[in-house]
Amino acid sequence: MPEQQPYEAGRAIAGTGMGGAMDLAASEATTLERTPGGPEGTGPAGKPRSLWSDAWRDLRRDPVFLVSALVILFLVFISVRPSAIASGNPLTCDLARAQDGSAPGHPFGYDGQGCDVYTRTVYGARTSVTVGVLATLGVSVFGSVLGGLAGYFGGLWDAVLSRITDIFFAIPVVLGGLVLLSVVTSNTVWPVIGFMVLLGWPQISRIARGSVITAKQNDYVQAARALGASDPRILLRHIAPNAVAPVIVVATIALGTYIALEATLSYLGVGLKPPSVSWGIDISAASPYIRNAPHALLWPSGALAVTVLAFIMLGDAVRDALDPKLR
Amino acid sequence: MLLDARDLHVEFHTRDGIAHAVNGVGYAVDAGQTLAVLGESGSGKSVTAQAVMGILDTPPGRITQGRILFRGRDLLTLKGEERRRIRGTEMAMIFQDALSALNPVMTVGDQLGEMFVVHRGMSRKDARARAVELMERVRIPAAAQRVRDYPHQFSGGMRQRIMIAMALALEPALIIADEPTTALDVTVQAQVMDLLADLQREYRMGLILITHDLGVVADVADRIAVMYAGRIVETAPVHDLYKAPAHPYTRGLLDSIPRLDHKGRQLYAIKGLPPNLTHIPPGCSFHPRCPMARDVCRTDEPPLYEVSETRGSACHFWRECLDG
Amino acid sequence: MAEPILEVSGLVKHYPLTRGVLFKKQIGAVKAVDGVDFTLAQGETLGIVGESGCGKSTVARLLCGLERPTAGTITFKGEDITRLSGKALKAVRRNIQMVFQDPYTSLNPRMTVGDIIGEPYDIHPEAAPKGDRRRRVQELLDVVGLDPEYINRYPHQFSGGQRQRIGIARGLALRPEIIVADEPVSALDVSIQAQVVNLLARLQTEFDLSYLFIAHDLSIVRHISDRVAVMYLGRIVETGRDSEIYDHPTHPYTQALLSAVPVPDPDAREHRERIILTGDVPSPADIPSGCRFRTRCWKAQERCVVEVPALAVPAAFRDAAGPAAHPSACHFAEEKQVVPPEESRLNGNGPG
User: Does the ipTM surpass 0.90?
Assistant: First the structure.
């Protein structure tokens, strides 16, 4: 029973043994049918609790969340205002200083072209964050709409969509990127994002479909239907709010992998190309000099690793907080 | 005494504080006897049984006090390995949900046979033969063929029989059945309870039947212990209790069930809700819902008064209650 | 008896069993409801009892328009509602509302109590002017015995019994004439069951409601119903007034069902005759020929295999006007008392 009552599981302290939720409560109506006390579970403060407020309570106390959120906030800040912490220009390079180590005002040293590694690493964050956030948004919107509708209406539409997602899952991402992006000439983030949305939506679509099917089976959906509620109303009011949590979790984790994918594609020369600034480009450019100037490789790779890790950790923390069974 | 649990206390750590699930429960069962533990959800009836069986999840649960004497040995002082050996061989448990208690990827024959392989060191072939025998014992038709089936291929009633067969496999001295028929239809429930009672007589086992159903209790139990908010509020031979309950909660329960033999006008309803186990009311925990409550009930926790040699009631005014 | 407000005739619901994903092939059908007729009078309670899989919940879903019947008619105040769609269907739905079994899944956890009870007004804006809705919701909370101040709380803050009251309040919001209650108390504790049963009884007189009360618990059905229908494998096998069914059952299935109910009286153990049926209910995808109960029936004969018994007053009782003369779908119907007659019991009356 606790499995079917995810929202109750927080109080079902002994699992099946207690017959699901223990009805912890103050007092209820009688033959007089009037309830004097407050409802249960409100705690001493009587503050209403919801899944989100419970999750937030858990998150605030979770060091994994706090650390990853701080890292992400910092990344967002430097992508919006890189000049706040890096006064140089990432495109101003001095070949004479190529591969030099750290110098005053240039703590990370210089790369193979004589560009300041610190400045480029800071400016590279913008590309990563932009690609990550936009690709995730696109993937989530497409994926949840398609998957959600398939899960809700079922039938032929669902069968066709499921086969299409299977096909997309079979495409190797990097190979697909090499083929598709090599014909693109535009040197902006848009083709990269477009490619990620194209290959990424099936993942979200599957999750959304599954969680919509689960939510659809709840009696409150039947209750709304019995009242004569329309499909859009049922989808938006009853199903979407109850099906969105898994999508958010997967999307957060995917955000990190999109950032890594952008770097991979840029490294392979099909993502962004110079003069764009990206960690992937810098990693690619620095790898031939790894013996002479390891710092030029180390800093952008380190920044990439920390960023990806931060998003994956955030996704993990959010999943733990949103999954009542883990409470 | 086969099993004698004394003054058990179990608590759970929850996000709302410490839930006092079991607060000083004691009961005893002899061989061949059926003790029914009656209570609503949150009364602590299942938690007590899990503590006795040694399958309480710790954490979040914690046994803070008490003794569980099984054939004179205190189970709570035994080491993990010794305790595990007693489970299954000397005491066994039947759960409400047979489908989730059976392994879905093993045939029932293998699951039944495994008991003999692990505990008795039998060969696979002998174990299979014993499995068929057991399935016949619990009256599963065409047992020899069905031994190769998987749990999902059986109906709910048949699965519950397989659970019973598993519990019986090593002929334990004590069986704890936690709501064994709650998930079943009445006609199937009758079959299963019938079977359980027959087998119990045959093997002279002690049976602890945990249930919320006053009808089932009346049908099979010798003694009954009524639990409320983690305490036993009344214990008595089953005939005495139904004839004249000595606790207002028991009386309320008996009066609140609709009757099959006549049509009542309005049901008696116990007012209010069971207490929050993190904030159990002081004094008698039933006092906020009790029609007989007086000042003393709000301050003094009633002990389990001796009503007669075989009866106990945790009500300050049990005499009044007994008189109706 | 008053004019029937609801008349169900020849109701059938078959779920096709198919194989294949894109190119579906029907390989059979689950006959969940297989020809059900009954009427419901204004202000009356009809109880439907049966074991799991007998189709009683499907009947509820068909009545509330959650499923379309395969065949048959549901006539509400003279109008067949099974053929309606769009606006007309929506209008009829206002009059037939449902109370669900599971108080934990029947309320949307993301909505406040006020939003849940007020939702009917969002869907049927003509039922209440916008400014009036909050007041009405609070009134409804009061009617079902909850504090109107709870309007902004979430369902998980309530216990099972309180949640069921919220579900009942939602069902009442549109002032329906019929409430279909599908196992409304079976998920609740004994002491809370009585509270909710009493509430339903009070609301019935207060709002002149007609109930279709579906349950597997025979005692509760007897308590609340005026008439009772016993279902087995998609059909009604016996129907009549509560005393006719409980005290004078003539169908062997009803007799077995009644005798299997554990009664809270240890003295009944010895002198009560138990009919223990063998085997399980057959699958509704593979219904036995003739009488569908014959595979478990101790009276079954050749005739039961070939001839489907009709639901009518059995010939043996047709002339006698006694309580045994009520419709029973059995070729060999005979009266048998299985519920021990009422005894004077010491605990027959409540405390205080």
Answer: no
